[in-house]
Amino acid sequence: MRAEDLRGRLRRRPFRPFRIHLSDQSAFDVRHPDGAIVGATAIVLPVPGDDAPAAVAEDGIAVSLTHITRVEPLKSAPAPGLN
After folding, report:
1. Domains in the chain with CATH codes
2. pLDDT tens series, the chain, 83 aa
3. Taking the model in full, what pTM does it have?
4. What is the number of other CB atoms lying within 10 angstroms of the CB of residue 46?
C-alpha cells in the first residue's frame, strides 16, 4: 500500500470510514480522518484501552505499509461535520 493512497482516503471529503486489513489477519477501523497518522513507510493506528470507550485511544500501533493487504470502505455514514 502506498502512503499517498492512505493519505488520499484520510483527506477525502466527505470522509468515508474504512478498514485496514493486515498480513497477520488483524484489521483496524479508521472512523475519523484524525484516527491515523501516515508516514513514508508506516501508519500509526489508535488502540483503545480495555476500560476506555471505543473512541478513546490509550495507545497506538505502528504498522509497516508493506503489511497492509487491503483497505475496504466501512458501511457506515460519513463522519459528522466533515463534508
Report:
1. 3-73 (2.30.30)
2. 899 999 999 999 999 999 999 999 999 999 899 989 999 999 999 877 676 565 667 788 999 999 999 999 998 655 555 54
3. 0.80
4. 21
